Amino acid sequence: MSHFTPTIVLLKEGTDSSQGKGHLLSNIDACVEIVNTLKTTLGPRGMDKLITNDRGKSTVTNDGATVMRLLDVVHPAVQTLVDIAMSQDSEVGDGTTSVVVFAGEILEQSRSFIKENVHPQTLIKAFRKACFKCRERIKEIAVKSNVEDEKQWNSMLKKCASTAMNSKLIAGHKDAFSDMVVQAVRSLDPEFPEVDLIGIKKVGGGAMEESFLVNGVAFKKTFSYAGFEQQPKKFTTPKIALLNIELELKNEKENAEIRIKDPKEYQKIVEAEWELIYEKLEKIVESGANIVLSRLPIGDLATQYFADRDIFCAGRVEESDMKRLSVITGKQIQSTTNGFTSEMVGECELMEEKQIGSERYNIFTGFEKQGSSTIILRGGAEQFLAESERSLHDAIMVVHRAMLNSNVVAGGGAIEMELSRYLHEYAKTIYGKEQMLISAFAKALEIIPRQISQNAGFDSVDIMNKLRKGHFEKPKENIWMGVDIENEGVCNTMKSFVWEPSLMKLNMISAATDAACLVLSVDETVKSPSLQDNNKISMEGRK
Amino acid sequence: MLRYDSSGKPFIIIRDQDQKERLTGSEARKANILAAMTVANLMKTSIGPLGMDKILVDQDGEVTATNDGATILKNMQVENPIAKLLVELSQGQDDEIGDGTTSVVVLAGALLEESLSLLEKGIHPSKISEGYEKACDIAVKHLLKICDKIEFDKENYGSLVKAAKTSLGSKIVNQYTEKIAKISVEAVLAVADLERKDVRFDLIKLEGKTGGTLGDTELIDGIIIPKNFSHPQMPKQIKNAKIAILTCPFEPPKPKTGHKLDIDSVKKYKELLEIEQNYFKEMTDLVKKSGATLVLCQWGFDDEANHLLLQKKLPAVRWVSGTDIELIAIATGARIVPRFSELTEKKLGKAGMVTEKSLGTTDENMIVIEKCSNTKTVTILVKGGNKMVVEEGKRSIHDALCVTRNLIKDNRIVYGGGAAEISCSVAVNKASKEITGIEQYSIRAFSQALLSVPIALASNSGLNSLEAVSEIQLKQIEKESPFLGIDCISMGTNNMKEQYVFDTLRGKIQEFLLATQMAKMILKIDDIIRPTGQY
């Protein structure tokens, strides 16, 4: 009787735990599954995804990070891939698909080693080494653009931007857009470029071709009260007051109550309230401002007051637009009219209200300083505009990054093939298991050109053979040999101007390696039952 | 969408995986194209002067009968994401141009339909897109080549009327096109700034009224507000009115802060009463003193004030809406006054004639403000047998106004009746032969798709559509004249120049660009992930 072994309940009922080699393989399978979903979006011939959520909102996109986010991944191992896509997005802005595809391929390559009982830590060590070597090689071979020469510098940035837009819907107009993007990024303060200061406004209707860049700030007409139409809508060299004040006749204190004993006092109270707002308005007018913008509402009384004095006003202006105006005019947003003087109003050359499509826009241009610009994006449908905005954002980030770090490498799989060749050669010089593992990493790198050609409907085996042969036979001359999308073959992508900032590749390789290593290092997952499942179990238990 | 790993264990990657379905590759593309074609086919029958209307009943049982593409699609409440894209496409055309909202959807549908067979040939969708893009480019350039200019000025606007007539041709108002086209053009010209080529639509007010026929629609050089004078004994007509526009009520003013008035004696109560009455007196006095002969008030006023106003012979209108107040202020040059004490003579607006009119047999009256000091505000009073007709009439007039505005902005035109499309189709087809490579196929497909609009036009007109279109095509090539189109209303000539059927160049270009853009976007999708059981 005493030999009875009691069962030890360690975890809560319903907890799911799995472990060991089988678990690791299962994780790899899950990651590969999601990568398969994503990989068709890679490259200039990559396709888009249409994702509809439970509430019926649909999104059409080609952006890796957006797809990953919208898929709503719950699998814990796959979650790491989502995270690297996000991190690539916030760090570099572009290459979000590549990073996920590459991480998935590393895992795919390591699958056979895991099956053969190679210890995951050995794999991790080798991959880290390979990653380190790749990073070194990229830094070594990256082409530095000549920053001195303004023209060359500009054209380099434009090329980076148009490469980022290659796979997107706006690819057809990439020349015009890359111009816009480069101009927009260059309008920022070179010391502290803040990408947020580039506004992208979407106006439905109109063709892509009608998109344009405003060298300044533009925003949609805000909600206005009667009297607004009587205000002038065009100013040359106006003075702009930026406020964060509610200009409305209202109760000043929420919970206050005034007790009046004498009916004669009544009128005085009424007048006191009017005086409060009139005082504010007078101060603004005295400062010499002829455009009044406020974050908070400007009521009908104030609107009519300003109309009477030929002053333009707009209330409820979005915070981001106010910030842009504040940066570009160099003036603070005021939250009180006390001590409001002419020194606190900004200036610009021209302010005009313009009709764009069915919307009316207030456009401010001709600022003394640089520091902000706005892209007005036109297009037929909402989803189209949303996707274009995402693509522009990617391009802006790439240009922004390239400006900070002027090194570029050739895209179209060229850099990946070169790294792969380099690692293969390196692998031959080392002894032990690592040799095979580093070769596996080198093989994983080939996924990028392979996928690009597959998505374009080419014979990927054929192209890969050509690329490998080229890179191995003449490593020096063919260093930038990549996939030629136009003519189904291979070419020097550096010469065909498929340029990417080297920073993007550096980040891509380390992020993908990190993610793969993380998945490999996991040998057990313990998943607590979700609250919903828990309830179900306890209900069943009661039955 | 259940997945299994290599050892056969299922795993869940995305949330509610079992409730999502996924279509990929050609399956997805086909599903999308079919959805788009369904919408396009639905719209085909309302193209052209003999196009039919659709009745739409919404959730509340409200009935709309219309032939305007954007309106149909907007009220259909489509669920399918691709169909929704087309709705937005048509909306985009409406926002920008205001005309051609049906054709743009039909063209996009045709482009996708053509791409189906190209896809079956194994052509990569992005190759098709590239071809479409190139073809669209060729078509737009061709449009620029064949376009014509129409001339007009403030007095001679016959050509504008003709353009407006084309736009009205397919609408319910087509019996009265001549009259309504003229009204629309006059309205636009009244508010247009010909030098800056700018037209401000908010200065044109469209007011609907049931009763009478569409033919009774009139243009009023001024503003109509659907209100009565506040007291029936007030005069119904005021000449040379001086108008005070007030945004404060005829009531004792109230502080906004919470307040309480303590009345603890009879004396105080009487005092209060006196003060209140004084307020009314003071207010009417202030208005009278300023020299106003008409008061428009955004808010109400009670009977006491009303009585006082009548006594002082001050006609007044209460509860005038904010937008009307603004329009009247612009038209009469008045300033909107928020407090009685600020009322001065300078702030009054002037109008030559203000009349209260009753229309039809209904009790509702209207106040017409005419001969304003600043004439740049007009109202089109649309009349019709029932509400549905009035609403559709308004929409049609809006379209005509848009056409006129577009012509003022850019006076280049292309010929309608499918002439421009056929001509472009011929040009694109010709150009395709000079291009080697796969793109040739997609460019040729584009030229085929362009014919979809004239084909729909011809079949709606009861012609043998394919025969009619091919005949015109032949004639166009033979005579090299890009203004031959479908003779929809049996005028006996195919020459659209003689029939005066034309569209704005801007609208046509926009139509091509938007439809191509949409086709490209839909072709680029190869993966649909959505909750199961929908659509």
Automatic annotation (TrEMBL), chain A:
Taxonomic superkingdom: Eukaryota
PROSITE patterns, sorted: TCP1_1 (PS00750), TCP1_2 (PS00751), TCP1_3 (PS00995)
Keywords per UniProt: ATP-binding, Chaperone, Cytoplasm, Nucleotide-binding
Localisation: Cytoplasm
One Gene Ontology term, aspect cellular component: chaperonin-containing T-complex
One Gene Ontology MF term: unfolded protein binding
Pfam families in the record: Cpn60_TCP1
Main location: cytoplasm
Assigned protein family: Belongs to the TCP-1 chaperonin family.
Subunit structure comment from the entry: Heterooligomeric complex that forms two stacked rings.
PANTHER family: CHAPERONIN
Protein purpose: Molecular chaperone; assists the folding of proteins upon ATP hydrolysis. Known to play a role, in vitro, in the folding of actin and tubulin.
Protein name: T-complex protein 1 subunit eta
Lineage of the organism: Eukaryota, Metamonada, Anaeramoebidae, Anaeramoeba
Automatic annotation (TrEMBL), chain B:
Assigned keywords, A-Z: ATP-binding, Chaperone, Cytoplasm, Nucleotide-binding
Gene3D superfamilies, sorted: GroEL (3.50.7.10), GroEL-like equatorial domain (1.10.560.10), TCP-1-like chaperonin intermediate domain (3.30.260.10)
SUPFAM superfamilies: GroEL apical domain-like (SSF52029), GroEL equatorial domain-like (SSF48592), GroEL-intermediate domain like (SSF54849)
Coiled coil spans: none
Entry annotated with the keyword Chaperone: yes
Protein's cellular compartments: Cytoplasm
Protein family membership: Belongs to the TCP-1 chaperonin family.
Name this protein carries in UniProt: T-complex protein 1 subunit epsilon
